[in-house]
Amino acid sequence: MKNKLSLGSVLGIGLTSLIVAISAFSGQLSDFISQLERKNAKQAFSEWYNQHPFAPGNQLSADAAEELPKYDRPDLARQQDFLWTLDPALGYPPRERLLEAQRIVEEYKSDPSRYAPGDALLPWEERGPNNVGGRTRALMWDPNTTNKVWAAGVGGGLWYNNDITTPGTSWNNVDDFWTNIAISCIAFDPSNTQVFYVGTGEGWYNADALQGLGVWKTTDGGST
Q1: What does the alpha-carbon distance between residue 182 and residue 170 come to, in Å, rounded to a whole number?
Q2: Bridge-partner residues for 210, per DSSP?
Q3: Nearest to 151 by CA among 137, 143, 139, 166
Q4: pLDDT, position 56
Q5: Residue 161's closest CA among 125, 191, 189, 195?
Q6: Most buried of 35, 38, 171, 207 (most Cβ within 10 A)?
Q7: Cα 159 → chain centroid
């Protein structure tokens, strides 16, 4: 009896192991097939794209296309837009989907909670300024006060808000001098929090980089 039970146990363990192995193999096979299908789909689309009459090089040589006055060829822009917006599964841009996209946008606009950053527990709230354009590149919580915050724009401007927690408080620019300097970073000295450093200018990695005037320092918490 014991031998029979042991044999049954062995058979059961073996069968279980076989099922697990088959399941694992099936999963790997399914992943392999999916990857192969995606690869084939990408290859098929690439071949279709390269043969499309709108594809670059299928109408003119690269040198000839480069010599064309682009401002007189709106058709080239139209062809490029066609290729950029088409659905690979259809082979053309599905313009009818724009109506559905517009409906979704209007739906989101009617309910700000759907597109506002954060969540119900930790929502983001706008604190301005909303009357001055520019890119806010630097933020610093003033270490010498409770709720004062400094902000700087890479397009120019050094600002402060004396109470960031109150929606009614305004952002104030330090003066007209700072309005014309690109500011990219702000920091304070942890050993002396009255000392602030403001770094100006952008790097040369983008074509529209703005030049600065070096690093500036204040020793009285930003008063001067």
Answers
A1: 21
A2: none
A3: 139
A4: 63
A5: 125
A6: 171
A7: 26
Per-residue pLDDT reduced to its tens digit, 75-120: 777 777 888 888 888 888 888 888 898 888 888 778 766 666 777 7
Question: Max Cα separation, the chain?
Answer: 98
Q: What is the 3-state secondary structure (H, E, C) of 97-163?
A: HHHHHHHHHHHHHCCHHHCCCECCCCECCCCCCCCCCCCEEEEEECCCCCCCEEEEECCCCEEEECC
Determine phi and psi for 172, rounding to 5 degrees: -120, 130
Per DSSP, what are the bridge partners of residue 123? Answer: 118
Q: Which two tokens stand for residue 47?
A: 């071949």
Cis before residue 129, ω within 30 degrees of 0?
yes
d(CA 148, CA 163): 5
Provide mean pLDDT across the span 3-28: 52
Q: Phi/psi zone of residue 214: left (φ > 0), alpha (ψ -120 to 50 degrees), beta?
A: left
Mean pLDDT of all residues belonging to the chain: 75
Do the Cβ atoms of 138 and 152 come closer than 8 Å? yes
Contact in structure between 180 and 134 (CB atoms under 8 Å): no
Instruction: Provide the 10 A C-beta neighbour count for residue 82.
Output: 13
Give per-residue pLDDT as tens, 121-133: 777 777 766 666 6
- Residue 82 sits at φ, ψ, to 5 deg, of -60, -45
